[in-house]
Write a structure and sequence with these properties.
This protein has helices spanning 12-23, 55-62, 73-85, 101-108, 122-138, 159-171, 226-239, 249-253; strands at residues 2-7, 27-34, 49-51, 66-69, 89-92, 113-116, 142-149, 177-179, 191-197, 204-211, 214-221, 245-247. The longest helix has 17 residues, at 122-138. It is elongated. Strand 5 (89-92), helix 4 and strand 6 (113-116) form a beta-alpha-beta unit. The protein has eight helices and twelve strands. The strands form two sheets. The protein has a seven-stranded parallel sheet, with helices on both faces. It has a five-stranded mixed sheet with strand order 8-9-7-10-11, with helices on one face. It is α/β, with parallel strands linked by helices. The structure holds nicotinamide-adenine-dinucleotide (NAD). Nicotinamide-adenine-dinucleotide (NAD) binds next to helix 1, strand 2 and helix 3.
Length: 255
C-alpha cells in the first residue's frame, strides 16, 4: 500500500486527487493539509484536513511514502521541504514556480525522488513531443502559443504554455519570447505567447505555425481535471521506485 499525503486538500486539484486515492486499491490517504477548512473531513476519507502551517511536525507523525502538492508557488517550497524532512517522495504539480525552481531543486537534490511537471496529462505530454517534431520542419514559420484557462487561475501564461514555448525554442536553437502585443509591435522571429482567462475553461493550449498561404494548428483541450489528476496518480506510483532527484512526466510515461 502506498501511503499518501496531499497538500492543497480542499482545492480544485487536491480534492479530486483525494477522490482518486480513494478509488485506488493500492493507495491510502494518511494526511491532508490546507490553510482553510482545518478539521473538516478530506473528501470521503477518514482523514481530517490538518493545518498546513504546522506541516513540518504533522507530516513527520504520519510519515507518508509520497506527498502530492497542488497549492501555490510560495506554499510549495515549504511543503517540499517538509516532505524531504520526513523522507517522502514528491509529486509536485503547482505551477508558476519559475522563481523557486532552483531553490526547490536544491532542497530535493540528493534526498528523495520527485516528479515535477507543469502538466500531468498524457495528452499534453504527447502535445509537447508533437511541437518538437513540427518545429523541426516549420522553424521558419511564425509561431504563436495561445492558452485559455478559467477565471480563477492565478499565474499567466500557464506553465504548460511556457513549456510549449521552451521546447520549441530549444528545438530551434533559442528564440525570443514575446508575451502579448500592444501598440506598435512588428513581428520578428519571436515566439508569441498569449493568455486568455474566463469562465470555467479547464485548460486549452494551441500552437499556431503560420506560413505564407497556409497554417498548422496543434491543439490540446482538457475536458476535465481528471486529465491531470490521473497523471499525478500514475506519477505517485512511478516515483516510489525512481532514483533520487527531479524527474519529468515524460519519464513517467516513457515518452
Ligand atoms: N501540473 C498540472 O497538471 C496542473 C493541473 C491543474 C492545475 N495545476 C496547478 O495546481 C495548483 C493548484 O490549482 P487549483 O486549481 O487546485 O487551485 P485552488 O486554488 O483550487 O487550490 C489550491 C489549494 O491550496 C491551498 N493552499 C494554499 N496555501 C497552502 C499551503 N501552504 N499548504 C497547503 N495548502 C495550501 C488553498 O487553500 C487551496 O485549497 C495551481 O498552481 C495550478 O496552476 C497544475
Amino acid at each position: 500500500m502506498i501511503t499518501v499525503a496531499v497538500t492543497g486538500a480542499l482545492g480544485r486539484m487536491g480534492s479530486l486527487i483525494i477522490e482518486n486515492i480513494g478509488d485506488a486499491p493500492d493507495m491510502e490517504l494518511v494526511a491532508a493539509f490546507d490553510i482553510m477548512g482545518v478539521g473538516m473531513p478530506a473528501g470521503n476519507a477518514d482523514v481530517l484536513v490538518a493545518d498546513a502551517r504546522k506541516i513540518d511536525t504533522l507530516l513527520a507523525s504520519t510519515s507518508p511514502d509520497v506527498l502530492i502538492d497542488f497549492t501555490t508557488p510560495g506554499a510549495a517550497v515549504g511543503n517540499v521541504r517538509a516532505a524531504v524532512g520526513c523522507g517522502a517522495a514528491i509529486v509536485l504539480g503547482t505551477t508558476g514556480l519559475e522563481q523557486y525552481q532552483e531553490e526547490i531543486a536544491g532542497i530535493i537534490a540528493g534526498s528523495v525522488p520527485a516528479v515535477i511537471a507543469p502538466n500531468f496529462s498524457v495528452g499534453v505530454n504527447v502535445f509537447w513531443k508533437l511541437l518538437i517534431e513540427a518545429a523541426a520542419y516549420l522553424g521558419d514559420w511564425d509561431i504563436e502559443v495561445i492558452e485559455a484557462h478559467h477565471r480563477h487561475k492565478k499565474d499567466a501564461p500557464s506553465g504548460t504554455a511556457l513549456h510549449a514555448a521552451d521546447v520549441i525554442s530549444k528545438a530551434l536553437g533559442g528564440k525570443e519570447l514575446v508575451y502579448g502585443r500592444k501598440g506598435l509591435a512588428p513581428r520578428g522571429e519571436e515566439i508569441g505567447i498569449h493568455a486568455i482567462r474566463g469562465g470555467d475553461i479547464i485548460g486549452d493550449h494551441l500552437v499556431l505555425f503560420a506560413g505564407d498561404g497556409e497554417r498548422i494548428e496543434i491543439k490540446h483541450q482538457a475536458h476535465s481535471r481528471q486529465a491531470f489528476t490521473g497523471g499525478a496518480i500514475k506519477a505517485a506510483r512511478w516515483v516510489m521506485d525512481a532514483p533520487v532527484g527531479v524527474h519529468g512526466m515524460e519519464e513517467v510515461l516513457g515518452l
